[in-house]
Amino acid sequence: LKRLDQPLQLPATGDADELNDVADAINQMRHTLQQDVVREQAAVQELQLTKERLAIAIDNAALGFCEYSADNDRCDANSHFATQLGLTRTELEHLQHPMEMLLSSIRGPQATEQRERLNQLLYGRIPRVSDTYHIVNQRQDPCIFDITFQITAYHDNRPASILICIVDKTREHSASQQAQELAINMENKVAKRTEELYNEQMRAKVALQRMSQQLDRCQATLRSQKHSIFNRLLLEELQAHHNHEPHAQLKIFQDYLHIS
């Protein structure tokens, strides 16, 4: 059985006996084991190829990937994970208490609640935690990460291995925040310009009303002047017509009142 590629052969005796039956059974078992070995080798190669493809996909997706061993308190991570935390892979591998470092770097208004949930995961009370975290990395850069913690193995009912995946959302959040600020600024500018146009319209309306009133006064003054000139000329004409008559002044005044 140590040489699966060589079938077991017995010296020919001319008649089939029990030894030949045993040899045939052994050869059949040898063939089966050989097929199992081939399938196992193919499965190992396929698994290795899948792992390599997965590693390439993770690197291309800039996904931070880490397997945290609770027993050894160590991280086995890719370069993206280390970079996202502001470290090199070597620094991360030799870091003392990496999980404590990660928890202490959480910031934001939900930091206390998020740390509490992660502590529950570390005690094995919940198997998975996924959330958006505000992190200040080891370079003191503020970052925003989508992080998933998943327990993958237990030892004595406590987590022995935890898988951590990080997706950096800092740029997306910054772009979204800038877009919101631009939208708010645009709305403020539109509101301000609308108010300015309204004020200009009201000022124009007031000016138009003032001009209309001035025009009405000018027209009234002009009519009054024309009426005064007409009355004066009429009075002069009446005076010239009745100048030699008795009681001329009274007659002129009566005729003026009657005409006007």
Give the overall pLDDT as a whole number.
81
Q: Report the helical percentage.
A: 55-70%
Strand order within the widest beta sheet: 2-1-6-5-4-3
Largest sheet: 6 strands, antiparallel
Structural class: alpha+beta
**Total DSSP helices:** 7
| Structural shape | rod-shaped
Rg for CA atoms: 51 Å
The parts where pLDDT drops under 50 for at least 5 residues are: none
From the N-terminal CA to the C-terminal CA, the straight-line distance is: 147 Å
Strand content: 15-25%
Number of strands: 6
What is the H/E string?
A: HEEHHHEHEEEHH
Describe this protein's structure.
- α6 (170-241) runs antiparallel to α7.
- A hairpin with a 2-residue loop joins β5 and β6.
- The chain is rod-shaped, with a radius of gyration of 51 Å.
- A six-stranded antiparallel beta sheet has the order 2-1-6-5-4-3.
- It is an alpha+beta fold and 260 residues long.
- Helix content is 60%, strand content 18%.
- It has seven helices and six strands; from the N terminus they run αββαααβαβββαα.
- The longest helix has 72 residues, at 170-241.
- The mean pLDDT is 81.
